[in-house]
Design brief:
By secondary structure, the protein is of the alpha/beta class. The protein has two domains: about 1-160, Rossmann fold; about 175-290 and about 335-350, Argininosuccinate synthetase, chain A, domain 2. It has helices at about 10-25, 40-50, 60-75, 85-105, 120-130, 140-145, 150-160, 235-250, 275-290, 290-310, 315-330, 360-365, 375-385, 385-395; strands at about 1-5, 25-35, 55-60, 110, 135-140, 175, 180-185, 215-220, 225-230, 230, 255-260, 265-270, 335-340, 345-350. A five-stranded parallel sheet has the order 3-2-1-4-5, sandwiched between helices. Helix 8 crosses helix 9 and helix 10 (about 290-310) runs antiparallel to helix 11 (about 315-330). It is elongated and about 85 Å long. Its EC number is 6.3.4.5. Homotetramer. One of its GO terms (biological process) is L-arginine biosynthetic process. It catalyses: L-citrulline + L-aspartate + ATP = 2-(N(omega)-L-arginino)succinate + AMP + diphosphate + H(+). This is Argininosuccinate synthase.
């Protein structure tokens, strides 16, 4: 039997690599997606080889992740429950896609992942893999084995000579990529307490951020960021540079009570410095170039899009149809927005676009302008007609 394992190089997937070989008498191929995480992927490759992987794939998918997944969510202004930019959620369809592609190339009969049964990722991997290859067998070692304590994991590693990353005393569970990071468990389970400063790795405390604000100029074409302070940059470099600058000002910290797909309420602490800035700038640019009805309707569809991403429904007809809608809307979303970074906040200070619907000659309250003030009474009369008729029907009775 041949199995392709989604391999992070961490403790669980290092154990899973060994466990799969022994439990299924299988040849295991490790696949590690480079999405801009902080781990040493060269060391992860070496560890996989030492633990008996038949082959190891370490693929740089950062550009594809941003261009085809994160930036699609940005174009949609998709934010789960109004706060979470879904860095982890957006990466799972891409990992699932490559798992299936590698399994087909290698003639594997199954794929495996290290997600637990309590989180969202087990559903995301299962749904993605099944949509792409309904006949592919999916193995979830963490759901099958009995290594549910740190002591049991250490004992297994020692018994079978499994090379693992250093066992750390940190109580936190982390997931990181270019678009953001998530932290759970440990002291964060006590929702009466503020997150300890130690949980943050990409942003400084707003209180200790620079005393002087910093201006950042972002240019968009068809809803996609293309320039930072006038310099044309590819997605990876633009996001990396922006994340560093925003993080230096404490921008991008999020602490929410999150409704998980599996039905649990959990506390999620996230850092998304680049995404926080890009969403602010993109939304302001849309408000400048889209008429009111389209802007408001698109916001509703953005919320629906976020729900699809979070709920493991990337590979669905509704998602692709919504993408077609957003692609059409974004044709006019081009221009430049300048934002101010200061003490954990990001604020738009200027915006411009060749497609701007702002017309100062009409919008100004100065006496000399193009707007016909006399038209206001007739407009107000017609607009308030339903209220007028209802008032006549009530016969002057007051509202309660």
């Amino acid at each position: 039997m041949k199995i392709v394992l989604a391999y992070s190089g961490g403790l669980d997937t290092s154990l899973a690599l060994s466990w799969l070989q022994r439990t299924y008498d299988a040849e295991v191929i490790a696949f590690c997606a480079d999405l801009g995480q902080s781990e040493d992927l060269a060391e992860a490759r070496s560890r996989a080889e030492r633990n008996g992987a038949a082959k190891v794939y370490v693929e740089d998918l950062r550009h594809e992740f941003l261009a085809r997944y994160a930036f699609r969510a940005l174009r949609a202004d998709a934010v789960y429950e109004g706060k979470y930019f879904m860095a982890a959620s957006l990466s799972r369809p891409l990992i699932a896609k490559r798992l299936v592609e590698i399994a087909r190339e290698e003639g594997a009969q199954a794929v495996a992942h290290g997600a637990t049964g309590k989180g969202n990722d087990q559903v995301r991997f299962y749904a993605g893999i099944t949509a792409l290859d309904p006949g592919m067998r999916i193995i979830s070692p963490v759901l099958e084995w009995d290594l549910h304590t740190r002591a049991a994991q250490i004992a297994y590693a020692r018994t079978h000579g499994v090379q693992t990353p250093a066992f750390k005393s940190s109580p936190y569970s982390r997931d990181t990529n270019l678009w953001g990071s998530s932290v759970e468990c440990g002291p964060l389970d006590d929702i009466l307490l503020a997150p300890p400063e130690e949980v943050y790795t990409a942003t400084v405390s707003p209180e200790s951020a620079p005393e002087d604000p910093e201006l950042v100029r972002l240019t968009f074409e068809r809803g996609v960021p293309t320039h930072l302070d006038g310099e044309a940059l590819g997605p990876v470099e633009l996001v990396e540079r922006l994340a560093e600058r925003a993080g230096r000002h404490g921008v991008g910290r999020i602490d929410i009570m999150e409704n998980r797909l599996v039905g649990l309420k959990v506390r999620g602490v996230y850092e998304s410095p680049a995404a926080t800035v890009l969403y602010e700038a993109h939304r302001e640019l849309e408000n400048l170039v889209l008429e009111r009805e389209l802007f408001q309707y698109k916001a509703e569809m953005g919320r629906r899009y976020a729900q699809l991403i979070y709920d493991a429904k990337w590979f669905t007809g509704l998602r692709t149809s919504l993408d077609a809608f957003f692609t059409d809307v974004q044709e006019r979303v081009g221009g430049t927005v300048t934002v101010k970074l200061f003490k954990g906040s990001v604020t738009t200070v200027s915006r411009s676009s060749p497609h701007s619907l702002y017309h100062p000659d009409y919008a100004s309250y100065e006496a000399e302008n193009e707007f016909d003030q006399r038209a206001g009474e007739g407009f107000s009369y017609i607009w308030s007609m339903p209220a007028r008729v209802a008032g006549l029907r009530r016969g002057g009775a007051s509202w309660t």
